[in-house]
Amino acid sequence: MRTSLFFPLAFLTFMSGACDNKEPVTQNKSPGPVTAAASPSGHAPAHAKPGSHEDWCAEHAVPESLCTRCNASLVPAFKATGDWCVKHELPESQCLKCNPDLKIERPPKTGGT
What we know:
Largest sheet: none
Structural class: mainly alpha
Low-confidence stretches: 1-5, 11-38
Strand content: under 5%
Helix content: 10-25%
């Protein structure tokens, strides 16, 4: 049941916080550049629907609503569900160092977006 609460909590947390652009870090191992849809900073606009094409952190190549490097307040939720890589300090589900075959892909654009 924790999973059903996670995404609304993540969305609300995302809406209340923003990324800081201290140091560019990327985990994208796919060829070609990663670009953000609507923001020159590479981060999702505040109105982006979680799980949508627009919900993307180009800086870290993960959904913005789940980006713990941009929004540290998400960390406790990942830790509570056991999805945490202590060694690399990010969700295990996003840790490409521990899971080199992991594919984190941006959702495709839909309809008129």
